[in-house]
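can u do me a favor
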């Protein structure tokens, strides 16, 4: 199945359309989201943010990016925002003024990251990161892949459907040890963990594939 899927990803377009009634029902069951809970959580998070030393927008659309993955617990959302701020500070040299066009070669010229136009049966975004024989580290560095993954997450969390359903990242190690990206598969898996940015509010599952 994966052999076919890996060859079929299309262009990635951001879907910022409001959640459907069906999706809102998922949010209610999985994330505790109701109009009442959402309104109260947004108001409380605004207060917490104002009293903190963090510098983030406080409009509802932005705050939902942090409230949904933390199931509308304002204190947890604020902690996530602080984690993001610390992450961005730690990797400032790599991420400062980063734009989607800056990571385009990773997708277009080398095809190392593929994002599907369709979602899985749970409504999750699907992405494949090629870390086996297809990855030539002389042409694409780990920093470039890191920046690309960060950019994807930063765009994906703008989607209400992804905020609610999350995403699945498939790490493709096919041919590891036989191509330009040689090495032990355990080392490749560790590289995958190190490269995947943890500083964004995106619920995701990782799946290694050989």
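np, heres the sequence
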């Amino acid at each position: 199945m994966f052999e076919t899927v890996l060859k079929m990803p299309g262009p990635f377009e951001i879907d910022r359309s409001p959640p459907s009634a069906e999706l809102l029902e998922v949010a209610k069951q999985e994330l505790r989201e109701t109009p009442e809970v959402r309104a109260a959580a947004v108001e409380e998070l605004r207060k917490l943010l104002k009293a903190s030393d963090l510098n983030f927008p406080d409009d509802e659309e932005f705050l939902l990016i942090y409230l949904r993955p933390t199931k509308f617990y304002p204190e947890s959302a604020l902690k996530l925002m602080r984690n993001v701020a610390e992450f961005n500070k730690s990797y400032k040299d790599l991420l400062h003024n980063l734009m989607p066009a800056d990571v385009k070669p990773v997708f277009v010229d080398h095809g190392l990251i593929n994002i599907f136009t369709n979602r899985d049966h749970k409504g999750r975004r699907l992405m494949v990161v090629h870390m086996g024989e297809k990855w030539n580290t002389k042409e694409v560095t780990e920093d470039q892949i890191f920046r690309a993954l960060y950019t994807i997450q930063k765009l994906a969390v703008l989607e209400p459907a992804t905020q609610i359903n999350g995403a699945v990242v498939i790490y493709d190690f096919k041919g590891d040890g036989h191509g330009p990206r040689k090495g032990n598969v355990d080392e490749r898996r560790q590289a995958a963990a190190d490269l995947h940015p943890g500083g964004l509010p995106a619920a995701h599952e990782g799946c290694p594939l050989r």
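The CA atoms of residues 124 and 167 lie 5 Å apart. hope that helps!!
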